[in-house]
């Protein structure tokens, strides 16, 4: 009987793997078709189904390189960083270091002094779901100052002055995408753990998941892709600074699949925290938001998504917890339309 049960278990495992392979062959075909139409845009894709990872990639590390992109090639994941930051916030809540409905007042470093009009107004969950009403940085002005490194002009003083000078929340409770809100979550993590955001990230996510090729301050590695703006001009990777929690992690398809495996496994700390980030914290006629997580629901499925765009790269992450799959798409050009269209066609023709 024991050997028969083992045989059934093996047969089921092989069946699941074969199903995942068949699905990914279709995904690979769609990715290849896109690359043939857009040969200047390098791409790396990872897919997970029933805990099995599959990978494909097309293009070179740069226009001058002869090295092929693969699952280990480094990209900017940009604002996908935000869901990693909110996962850390959810882990802190599970550890009783904070409550998501706590006001931010007592969780900010001493350099932040809220005006009386803002005291006991903004919750941690408001920051994480883009409804705090706080002012945000003006990317247009920053790009004009430094097109290659626009966020270099955002410092701790810039951030504290912006928050400390704020006397009104013009659209509190309404959705407005916010880099500053997620940046402040990084400041909160630093205070509750008594260490840098980078150190918390490594301790809670990178080291436990063995994400050894996910990079922070030091990303000048040989397998790094080159980024290109929409006009094809070369674009530098963003340097690490105070806004890191909102968009400065660099990674690859292999490590991001490791992250998705943990997200889909509710026995892991990352998976338990992900369940919290998937709860609806904001809803209107256009969207549902978890903690930095876009929730997309149709008649059959609920998808959890986060996209990212730096000055020179685009990315998107999506997963379906009920069907136990996830996907990461990384492009070496800033092209938000392409990465969204790719996800849409993959979902509509293969995964739905």
Structure in words:
With about 350 residues, the protein is α+β, with helices and mostly antiparallel strands. It has one domain (about 20-45, about 55-350): DD-peptidase/beta-lactamase superfamily (Beta-lactamase), CATH 3.40.710. The protein contains eleven helices and twelve strands. A hairpin with a 4-residue loop joins strand 9 and strand 10 (about 300-310). Helix 1 (about 1-35) crosses helix 11 (about 335-350), helix 2 (about 80-95) runs parallel beside helix 6 (about 180-195) and helix 9 (about 255-265) packs across helix 10 (about 270-275). The longest helix has about 35 residues, at about 1-35. The chain is globular.
Question: Which features characterize this protein?
Answer:
two-stranded antiparallel sheet, Beta-lactamase, 352 residues, 39% helix, 11 helices, alpha+beta, eight-stranded antiparallel sheet
Q: TL;DR of this structure?
A:
This protein has 352 residues and is an alpha+beta fold. The longest helix is centred in the first third of the chain and has 36 residues.
